[in-house]
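Notes on consecutive records. When two proteins share a document, each keeps its own sequence and its own token line. Never mix them. Below: protein one.
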Amino acid sequence: MVSVIAWVSLNTMLATNLETEIKTFINKFAFFAAAFIPTSLWLFSYSFPWPKIKLFPKYTLTALILPIILGVFVVCTDLLVGDYVKTEMVNFGKLFVFVVVYFVFFFTYSLINFLKTYKEQNDIYKRIIKLLIIGIFTSSFIGVISELILPLVGYNHFSLLRGWIGPFSSLIWLIFSTKILMIKK
């Protein structure tokens, strides 16, 4: 949840009139924060709906170490995010395709875990998991398309479509999560 808030906040800051160097720096940290989103979801998919299940240490370490390694490459190099140019376009580097695969892999793996859990549950938990899957899939799909796929095919201009819709699609997930909490009570 913290990584989603950081990602949305940093992307909101990118829409302001800042210097090019500062925007590049903020964009790098936005990707660093976003790197924790798919692995956190993947980790959550193993423990839901029983949060007291003890996870294997390898899952927890993977969910922490992979985003940190990716974050080091993102923040310390230009392999993912290069400089902004005057037209507000981001120059993405060679690591961008890997990041797209990274996000799609962990979101897909999480979805598969939730679907497996769905089959094993009673009606109340099935309803909760269904809402969870719909919320996660919808916000993930919109975020991946606007923040990863569009730049991959050449649309990397920071605009309403790319830069706002992706981060704020997480509000869809928040709405479904609120509905889940109301059902659970």
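Protein two starts on the next line and is unrelated to protein one.
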Amino acid sequence: METLTNNFDSGIGVDAPSVSYGVDDESVPASYKVVIENRSRRWVNTNSMGLPTSSGAEERVVTITGYMQEAFEMATRSLWIDLPTTALRKWSDVTSVAGFSFMGKFSSRRMWANTNPLKFNLNLVFHAETNTTKEVTQPVKELLKLTLPIKPPGGGGYAAILAPGPNPFVEGLNYAETNLNLGEVDAFTEITSLSIGNLWYFGNVIVTDVSVKYLPKYDANGSSTHAIVNIVFETFEIPTRSDIDVALTAKG
């Protein structure tokens, strides 16, 4: 496949339309593997004004495979609030002066207000077996990028930066093309999927935290051959009960 012109800064990188990083050792059971796929759409052609045009739309797919060597965490939380019984509570204040109250257990009931997105906290291990760049350096760099904004093509020091992750107002990777048709400059969107062993698969997650720990092990060029990356993912939307069923059975 033809190498694409890079009109974005190195925060995206378009050396190849589709690349895979990490070590995918077939001798390691799939249960210990975490696969992160980032599919982005960006615009490589520009008009006379230096703005991207829809004819240059291309996708880039980056697949990263890492190993779990310890337990991972999943968590969510629902928010419950008091019932709107303001008038009843005021009446209770009056009657309590007389030594009794019309307030009962009903007034202590609460109603559901919201649920937080499902959160995953994983520690992934990357170690070099044959190629330090592909197996350690590049996957760590690509994971760090998932939290960072993007400088648009042709943008100077005062250009607005583009947000990472999916756009909340459209489905899939149509955001950039939709905005370009409206004459806007935004020209990047991405969707990241998360596969955890044979247990879970979520097709659209966001990355909120990435931290890297390099072990003092180096190759002949001085590059680290072993890294542990802590990543916090959240579902892009609040999952429903049926979403959880699908996410679990998708890997079953």
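For the record: Residues 83-113 form one domain.
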